[in-house]
Amino acid sequence: MACFILFGPPGAGKGTQAALLSGLLSVPHISTGDLFRAAVSEKSPLGVKAQGYLDRGELVPDEVVIDMIHVRLAQEDAQKGWLLDGFPRTVPQAHALDALLTSIDQTIDVVLNLSVSDEFLLDRLLGRGRKDDTEDVIRRRLQVYHEQTAPLIQFYRDRNQLTDVDGSSPVEVVTASIEEAVKPLLA
Ligand code: AMP
């Protein structure tokens, strides 16, 4: 059973690292951003609800995200562990995750915090070309990160669950640091 959270600002490389790490750990990579983008392109009721928030770089309301994660963690492939990418993103989401995990008898093994400076992120995000990556939206997403998501660093640090990883190094160096950090948990 391996339960991980990959945490970090938009553009820190969470998606890339999560894809590699989920292979290494043999657990599903659960990205709330990917789930929302899929819902938006399918125009499902969830997608219709989420679209405006994604377009503006705002967070989708907590209860919508929490319901979605509840459903996702109940699926068959998530019973032996998972790697969460992009969730939780607010303190209420972190509390809701705690309650959910208690109810399904699971615990978080580690929260990997990919830390990267804002200037670096802006350059990286502008080069990425995703639909929600215009400069205004990127700046808003960074602001939202600092206001609503960064407080979670202290939340998990206080519980001794946080491991910092320097996300500004080249991809393979970041991957090696992450592998080093999770190795003791794989034994
Ligand atoms: P991401 O790909 O993780 O950067 O997420 C893209 C967008 O999806 C975000 O800008 C939010 O609008 C939405 N989103 C993803 N995860 C969450 C979450 N945990 N809480 C609220 N909104 C989210």
Structure description:
With about 190 residues, this protein is an alpha/beta fold. It has a single domain, classed as P-loop containing nucleotide triphosphate hydrolases (Rossmann fold). It contains 9 helices and 5 strands; from the N terminus they run βαβαααβαβαααβα. It has a 5-stranded parallel β-sheet, with helices on both faces. Helix 1 (about 15-25) packs parallel to helix 9 (about 170-185). The radius of gyration is 16 Å and the shape is globular. It starts with a strand and ends with a helix. The model has no long low-confidence stretch (mean pLDDT about 95). The structure holds adenosine monophosphate. Adenosine monophosphate (AMP) binds next to helix 2 and helix 3.
